[in-house]
Write a structure and sequence with these properties.
Helix content: 10-25%
Strand content: 25-35%
Largest sheet: 8 strands, mixed
CATH architecture: Alpha-Beta Complex
Structural class: alpha+beta
Distance between the termini: 15 Å
């Protein structure tokens, strides 16, 4: 059973650990996302058909819940390697932007990779491909990509070379869920 650390609304550890999905009111979790770039292209992944939420949708390169006892950057490194086979040791200061949501925090990391061989985790990822900003926007428009706002994808492309985008108080500016009936449940796996 996967456990996650519980945080408070200010992102302080509470000392409590719970199974995935078992947090209560006032309890928050941490998610790490990774955007892998090769020049002007981002590696995107198609979520496995076995995923409980948004199966078959395209998403950023890798991501998932940070496990109990892990720091965000450690979770980002683990998720990237598990889902794609790409080894990269992120540091705490490598987080590019943090988005808070109703019951947690999304940390986004960026790195460069120009290798060819990838080892996909079939239970999580069915395929990957390299896409330009415009191609990702087209996938958002045709609803085959997680419904990030194009401005957020543009921010990730601009932050790939360094710098920190800061913290966003809520996810309304970065995600557009008007095309889903239960977006907060559907997106957060």
């Amino acid at each position: 059973m996967e456990l996650t650390d519980v945080y408070d609304s200010e992102r302080h550890l509470t000392g409590k650990r719970v199974p995935r999905g078992a947090w209560g009111p006032g309890e928050y979790r941490l998610i790490a996302h990774v955007c892998v770039f090769d020049g002007d292209r981002m590696l995107v992944q198609r979520r496995s058909a076995q995923k409980a939420s948004l199966p078959g949708y395209w998403d950023v390169s890798a991501g998932g819940q940070v496990d109990a006892g892990e720091a965000s950057h450690e979770g980002a490194s683990r998720e990237l390697f598990e889902e794609t086979g790409i080894p990269h040791a992120f540091r705490e200061e490598d987080v590019r932007i943090t988005v808070s949501f109703d019951y947690g925090f999304d940390d986004y990391y960026c790195c460069e990779y120009s290798g060819e061989a990838l080892a996909l985790q079939e239970s999580e990822v069915s395929e990957v491909r390299w896409c330009t900003f415009g191609e990702i926007c087209g996938m958002i428009d045709d609803r085959s990509f997680i419904q990030y706002r194009e401005s957020f994808i543009a921010s990730l492309f601009s932050l790939r070379e360094g710098g920190r985008g800061g913290t966003v108080a809520n996810d309304d500016a970065f995600y557009s869920f008007d095309r889903y009936t239960e977006p907060s449940k559907a997106f957060r796996d």
